[in-house]
Structures
1.
Amino acid sequence: MTLLTIENLNVSYRGSGRSAHILDGVDIEIGHGQSVGLAGESGSGKSTVAFALLGLLADNAEVSAAYAAFDGRTQDFAARETASLRGADIAMIFQDPMTALNPMFTIGTQLVDIQRRRFQKASRKALWARAEAVLADVGVQDAAARMHRYPHEFSGGMRQRVVIAMALLVEPKLLIADEPTTALDATIEAQVVDVLHRLRQRTSASMLVVSHSMGLIAELCDSVVVMYAGTVVESGKVADVLHRPRHPYTRALLACEIDPFAAFDPSQDLATIPGNVPDPSRRPKGCIFAGRCPARHDRCSEKPPQRHAGDGRPYACWLEAA
Amino acid sequence: MTALVDLSRRPGGTFALFAVTLLCLVAIAAPVIAPYGPNAIAPASRLMDPSLQHWLGTDHLGRDILSRLIFGARVALGISLSVIAISLTAGVVLGIISALSPRAVDLVIVGIFDIVTSFPSIILALALVAVLGPGLGNVVLLVSIVFIPHFGRVARAQTIAIRNSPFIEAEKVLGAQTWRVILHHVMPNIIGPIFVLACMDIPVVITIEAGLSFLGLGVRPPLASWGNLLNDGYTYLDQSPWLATFSGLSLILATLGFALLGEALRDTLDPKLRKTL
Amino acid sequence: MTALTLKDAVIRYDRLTAVDGVSLELRRGETLGLVGESGCGKSSVARAIVGLQPLAGGTLTIEGETLQDVSNQRRQALQRKIQLLFQDPAASLSPRMTVRSLLAEPLKIRGTYTPESRARIVDLAESIGLGEQLLSRYPHQLSGGQARRVALVRALAAEPSIIVADEPTAGLDISVQGELLNLLRALRDRLGLSYLLISHNLNVVGRVTDRVAVMYLGQIVESGPTAALFRAPAHPYTQALLSANLTLDVSRRRERIVLSGELPSPSNPPSGCRFHRRCPLAQPKCAVDVPTLQASGERSVACHFPLATAPVVTPQAIAG
């Protein structure tokens, strides 16, 4: 039984005259208590998936899905039904904690207000106590006093903890973390990763980690969905995808990662993927990665089929599984 | 030329261009197009309604309103453009100096700006005219002084906003002299809002001139200025509404024209907004 | 032969001492990494080296000439030999200038603007992938990669011998970051440049620098050849920083040392060793005595109780 299933999610924007296809047939499945990473570079559409899930896309976005269900109930993406799940069943941790907090109110007030939707009958006192406990839980020292402080009085790492606390307070079934540590320094990132780790062991919530950092996804997730230019190129268990990538894009991307433990020749060039992500308003008909793919051949001008690796892991490529 | 085409495509740009061009043409060609002399008195035909002979009617001395408005445009544009030119130049120079100088210099300049603006502009102009005496030249000079802080403040604020931005620092690292940084990198990036302000200030100057003229401290009657006309029209409003109406309309046309021109100009000057066309 | 020497540099902003006694030596032809977390003062060091921030103490020597000892004119000439690649390259380009005039700027500033020199710059631009059709564009019409290249050509047009790169890969996708780093290295070898690379990306620093200096709270806590220092850090802070680096292979990564607390404010640094309050190995002595940077061979460390630097921990051992 899965918490979230989305099949064939499409998002396009209709501008003046031309339309841009941002997501093309994205399939995602998140099991109960599972942590899924959504990996991809800029232009991959990974944030669009998260925003579509939250019903936060702009009005001129056309959203459709062949089938979508959250916690056993079908959802109509075209009608933005998922927006009603926001703030109760689905919570979000944003990349920039400062923009997620209102500078005019104390942390305490904001942590209480966020719970109103879910606990409509609870007293302010009870909600305050609950907020304080969760704040202490995510590693904010001296939480009782900190509740009375304003966002600008917190450091970046502390603010991100407050935002995590905020997301936890609504007891969501799904927690979406969009680049949760990108704005943080390495040692602070390590602290936040630590908090998220402990959290995963403690709550039953599922998690969707949207990030460009494979390292973060390797750290936090059970499985990973690799996206490129609005399509899913490959998905599967983190260990499988990272160690035995099937799709040429995943392979090329992982080759670009610098392995700090590997021996290297300093005069040797670093790996890159030449070329650019295709313009979403002029997507190629065939394989989306064909233009940059080192293994391109004639058939790549047609849309590749979904294949399954030996372990049942899907990937979209004409090449036979190695 | 492309800038003009660009301008006309902005919202209100066509109207602004039309209104401002019309005003300028009228002001330049006043002696040719005015049907009567601006001061030709005809006591027999005073306070007449618009007719074929006097398209916009006549005032309390029988002078042709259209002709007086046409000559008034000359005075209005002449004074306001001179005032803006003087105060804009002085204001921008002082503002940039203030923003880029050590604290002490900045404090002095800002202090002077504060003193000048702490008086209502019309009162300050009045006091200065009282000292120096009335007359066209003095009016231009004094109103200019009143407007310097207006431009100085914006120039200073704009300069402060960009003085530490990476592109200014990049020029410094390349070894650019201060004058070069100011002329090539500060000025082009702060001048947009200042032009907008200038366009919007033109009508304000026109009304200040009108106020001074009304009090006998500005343009002396019988010289036709819109201020004088408006005041005459106001005096005889119960007998004939035409003078007040048409001089008011001229003022509105000029105000709207310059204000819209200012906004269109701002969009055109900003390459980031330009691409949205 | 040293390209640049910074000695006992002190940088103050009003009463806040952001950099307190930092010494660096950049050798000709090498890439020196400067790492540390935000607020450690590494950007202030970069700004002081390129002349954007005055030194409140210490000296800067460029190719053997100490800036404090030479005439104003000579100082400007020396300063021009160091160019800075800004962290946000698009913002470092004057927004109302076309690429064509932006590229001509360094020549005009130096008074060497001729059709020939202009053509040379355009050739240089083309050689790193900036085509003719880009020349009439404005900075906001450039992609991130293009803006980076324009900024790079501008810096090179000033004919520098030293380039300070402030977070050159920040905001770049991993699939294109290699391209930029390869280009920088090729240019270094072709033009005989020396680089000071400021970054918080330890994977990049580990891969492209020859030597590295680690900063904490306005001071250098450890420096040495990159490979040796990354393999066996001597300072507990370096060790924690390296362990915080996320890697793909969770099973092989270093045992994570999660530091408690945050970077203290440089306006009120802790007594003794500035790191002692967060240091997992702190002793009573660390709160009292200030450790000085002690050199041993190529490596230096400022710690009372440095970790063993003999390579007892190999990558394989970490895997176990």
2.
Amino acid sequence: MNGLRWYLLRRLVLLLFVTAAVLTILFVMFKLLPGNPLSVFIDSNFSEEMIRRQKQLWGLDAPLWLQYVRYMWNMLTFSFGTSFFQMTPVRDIVIEKLLHTAAMIVPAVVLSVVLGALLGSWLGWRRGSRQEGAVVVGLLALRSVPSFFVGIIVLMVFSYNLGWFPPGGMVSIGGQGDSFLETILSLDFLHHLILPCLVLMTREITSPALLLRSTMLEVKGSDFLDILRAKGLPERRIVMHATRNALLPLVTDVAVMMGFLFQGQVLLEIIFAWPGVGRELVAALNDLDYPVAQACFFVMALIILLFNFVADVLYAFIDPRVALS
Amino acid sequence: MGVLELRDLCIEYSLGDGAALAVDKVSLAIGEGEYLGLVGESGCGKSTIAKAILGILPRNGRVRSGEILYRGRDMVGLSVAEMNRLRWQEIALIPQSAMNGFDPVYTVQQQIAEAIDAHVDWPATRKRERIDEMFALVGLERSRLADYPHQFSGGMRQRAMIAMAMVLNPDVVVADEPTTGLDVIVQDQILYRIKQIHTQLKKTMLLITHDMAVVAENCDRIAVMYAGKLVEHGAHDVFERPFHPYTMGLCNAFPDPGDESRELVSIPGAPPPLRAMPPGCRFAERCPFATDLCRREEPALSSVGDGHAAACHYIARAAEFRQRARLAETWQAGAEAA
């Protein structure tokens, strides 16, 4: 168990280190960004004195190292400041948008993983058959098509032509519930969710399906399955052993998938006018809303890192070989 | 009657476009408390027999005809549930690949306990005691019980495998090349453990190996297989007075600690492919003594002594063959003539 503790500690230190690195890169990136972060507040008629006072107000007159230290401290304590335009704390905006994004991603990932895993084990089972070949080719094709393309086609057909689904948004106008929970439990939300969720799934289902197909094939050839049979174990116990072994790589895959989805679906959020964190980031960049853009960047990076960390930790728990090597 | 008996056993593997007969009409009996060694080259069907006995042939393999009798009861065609009652409790397996014989994500203890749970309903303390006892039997420390298989060395894993095989006190133990992939010293230790189980616990054992020396050292009786056929079987007599040229070849291919002057002879060539078996004797192609008769007609097993039988047309000339088979030239010449 000592090995496991060390492993976790090492992972945790690595997580902190990488987070600091990401923050530093972000700091440099925003410094290099063309334009003045205060252009929103500084009118061309401002006098030198007024400009200086504005800079002082935002702390931009401090030496660079001090700005960096303050920035790091604020980011790490999640004090993101106030939005230039919405005049609300950035933290509230980011949390709200993250929840919206999660409301689309979580159901899509859960469905993709369950269906993909089932499909994958079926493919592993039917290995070499004509159906298997066809499905694998289909999956590879789905994987290669950009989701914004699929998104536009789907919108065109099911929304504009057939009119079965709303063209975008998370709820109808005025359909917002009193709380986030109330919103996502409404039928109206479900109606809005189906199209983007399906588009997301067409892509996300391919990874668990292809992964499970290959791990299932690998596990099926394992000698230990023969021994389990020879031990006289009932079939379901044997299947349990096989599945547990085949699922190992999937756990990591799912965690990593979740992380990347939070940032990878910016385009999808724009196409479906989904008020998520990706769309917020793009809007903030367009409006030069520095605090919001910074926070969105940071939170998305942090989510990827956290899910990677979770993947590592989970893997150590389900595969005892990892923690010790 | 034997504890375990094979009668005219034929096992085939279906391949994409046909079937290959891996075991062809093998009849063999293992008596109560006997230690039988089954030898042959890779691919001769010996491991297939082990798998068939435990009913774990791969998906494309099946017993085409014949019987596998355990205490007079045919196990071929038993339902999975009926088979599961016999497995491990009556017949246990020490597999070829202890390396991969354990599921990597469960501890050794869990996997041994699982074998117990599948058959008997013991309270936890009794299970624990029994597993401890088995670990002591094979010389493993109790503190290693909660370890995962990858934390064991190859030899330890194989010993844990033996512990697992013995945990339900089975009547018959099938050891399928139990020392593959282990270094020589560990091989010796493992074989010693297995021998100990045979002598102390009076188990009926079937040892499958390609190593004549191992059989000579450990087993009461020997059966030699070649290309899916049983070519010779008998007691220790088989080593001293082999009647089948293949057995002679095998005996000369392994060093004899008692006679260091003897030169080691190898048998040139390879067994015929399973899917293109020649008519006549299957060894004819590599046999330096083969005649037209051998290539035309298949020899039947015939008795050459007390419980000793060989399948060769020329058992009458065995004494002469034995002399010639000691010389490498004989085999070399045979290979060139072919």
